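In the lab's daily routine, each protein ends up as an entry in a very long ledger. A line of letters takes care of the sequence, but it says nothing directly about the fold. The three-dimensional part falls to structure tokens, numbers that each stand for a local backbone shape. The outcome of that step, for a single protein, is printed below.
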Amino acid sequence: MRYPAGMTSLWLESRTETEPAPLHSVDFSASPDVVIVGAGLTGLVCGLECARAGVSVTLLDAFGVAELTTGLTTAKASCLQGKKLTEISKTHDMDTVREYAAVNQSALAWLREFCAESGVDVQTRAAYSIAQDASTLPAVEQEAEVARAAGLAVESARGAPFDFAPFPIAGFVSLNEQAQFDPVSVALALAEEIRARGGQIYEGIRVLGVSTSGSAVVHTTGGDITTDRVVLATGTPILDRGGFFAKLEPERSYLTAYAVPSEALQPEGMYISIDEPDIAPTRSLRSAPGHLLVGGNGHVVGRSSNTRANVRDLITWTGHYFPEVAPTHQWSAQDYSSVDGLPVAGALTPTNSTVLFASGYAKWGMTNGVAAARILAARLTGRSAPGEDLFDSQRSMAVRHFPSFAALNAKVGLNVGKSWAKIARSLPQPPAEGDGEVHHDGLRPVATSTVDGQTRTVSAVCPHLKGVLCWNSAERSWDCPLHGSRFAPDGTLLEGPATQDLAQSSTPNWKGAVNR
């Protein structure tokens, strides 16, 4: 996948390119023990753990190693995760909270060990969950109390920490000895060891489906691959069996990077604010070599009316508190939260363990993704891993947490009606550069956008469950407000539970439009 200059992450733009295996070299007659769909952090860690155990693995990715969520994250690996522990404690007992913290600590230790062995640079930092406004101080104090009960050696205080912080901090809870790094460097190192151990990684091949009668058959754009087991490391399952699209909520958040003059001071810690959005918008900060990263302004995918404003707000806020920095990159990332607040890893259906998957990291995938990958690998190799029962995908999420399940799906249903009602009857002229509109072409809803001088029209209906798409002006993509599938202006599938591109449609012949 290639993005416009400045529209992708700092990590992806600076990555050291590796030559992907040529597509004609794929041996579709081979039958690896495991096929892993998705070459992000989860797929790669799972693949490496399998390869280390002598299991033959093939990884397939429609774009490339770390090209989606892994290459678009802030890459903060922390066991202090905003107010996550407090949120878990509200619907689970303290034993669950303690186990969640322990599983994340184990994952962080695994990641540190791998990076040390592979020569990947890791910076040790303190993690801070902060209150920007004094009204949030009780939430900070509660997170500190729950974290201590969970076995984490946190500190907390009112006011700002001693660390350099020119932005508002009314109070904080902190945890030392956490980590930050370049996630693409980690992913490439994982891929290198997988290949060294005989594993195969193929880029540019999209998986269309999986048949599980007898041996598993993975159907791809290049042909079929027979295997014993399949892992879906795709953020959300690309197969609807199991109905997990109804138990996971897709979330999108925005990030910006800034060049920092060598003489300028910047925060040395990793920060995440925990104020409610009506009090103060979320802010996430960390340093990178020569750069400052600032993120926030998250929302459910497809349900923000002006995503370009989300990015502008980050840039304006950063310019106010860090006037010496200059913006260089902007991007966004997608992740999923489960209805009970815990990640999921395991079988896709209760009666068949042929297809496994993982999801629900709630934006803390650097540790949760590693933990989930180890759980999946353990199931594939007959071993054990921390958190197998905690993350079990077949736990009773919908039943035990029915209010959250019902609320999530009620919002989906509401957005079905709202999205169809927003379709314009006609579009008198092409959208302005960078804009997109959903409108009627006869009786058909279509989506027209203008990007880089090209006006394109595609179907406005998501092929997954027929949601009407919304234009994301910050990312220049068509996003589905139901379950988070996303598409490029030309209809190419980017991510989400959908497996097909958008159908092409003829672009109206407006005078002066550049048609394709």
Summary: The chain is about 25% helix and 30% strand.
